[in-house]
Amino acid sequence: MNDRICMDLAEHSYEVIVQDGLLDRIGEFLVPFKLGPQTVVVTNPVVKRHYGARVVHSLRAVGLKPTVLALPDGERTKSLKSVAMVLNALLRRRYERKAWLVALGGGVIGDLAGFAASIYLRGIPFVQVPTTLVAQVDSSIGGKTGVNHLLGKNLIGTFYQPKLVLIDPSALRTLPPREYRAGLAEVIKYGVIADAEFFTFLEQDMDQILKLEPAALHRIIRTSCAIKAAVVSADEREGDRRRILNFGHTVGHALETLGSYRRYKHGEAVAIGMVVAARLAERLGLADASVATRIRALTERTRLPSDLPPHSASALIRAMRQDKKVQDRRIHFVLPDRIGHVVVRPVEEPAIRHVLTSKQPTT
User: Fold this and answer.
1) Greater confidence, 322 or 341?
2) Residues carrying an active site annotation
């Protein structure tokens, strides 16, 4: 498979390239940019073990001089402390503005490496090389960078676009099954917010997707990237339409925060958040019951959680109030009024509390 998807952002435009075997050819894709040879590959020990040597060989083959910085694995690494480690690596080597960062890993690595690139010497180029499904279909695309804070997820960060996103689907074959399934939550999200036909495909072909069947895998990556690129190209800085990409994330981020980023993978929390948002849309009269039923059924078929854990409604609402999507002190939700279309609405606390505390239907 070989796909090229354009992120159309005027002078910040770039390509998302999807190609099997690309991890061995990263260097040749960087040559046209004609920047300096100084390169820092930011990764984690697990990804380094699988792919570090191949990426380094590819970079050296075209005359680049890579250094590898492996940060601890896991969401708790997404912190200002880890960003400081990246900055220290650059500063100790006295790297200049023609230096590169290569983000080799999942969403945590991509977000924090991109943030470090955006603030080092007021900005140096970086490339996203995502190796998890959630990063390949979502977090590596669109230029959101940043880290977490004790009070909430992604509260510190910048909008800073990569020069290139290089996706090798074969990297998913070394991904633990739980991580892969968590990434499928973001894939389901795209069907709900923008493409009813794609959602139906997921319902019909989920068994093949879970087996990483090549044609099915190619379709979910290509379609997800294309939807994300179209949305971001129309609204780079989340002024309006880009907010639909937050479907499931209002409750999802609250669950991650309350779980200290340990209980749930990001996609698992988003899966629960999508089901809650669909139930809320039904409660508000925006959607009929079939919307929530289909979303919940597909989530469960993907072997993702769909039920809220035993947090109190008050704790969840407090965590939601720390979210970036709060405007004028009102919690905003992305709500599906039908499969393939969503609206963004402020929702009053009594309606939220009712859905959080009411018995959750089973499929």
Assistant:
1) 341
2) 122, 144, 186, 228, 238, 242, 246, 249, 253, 266
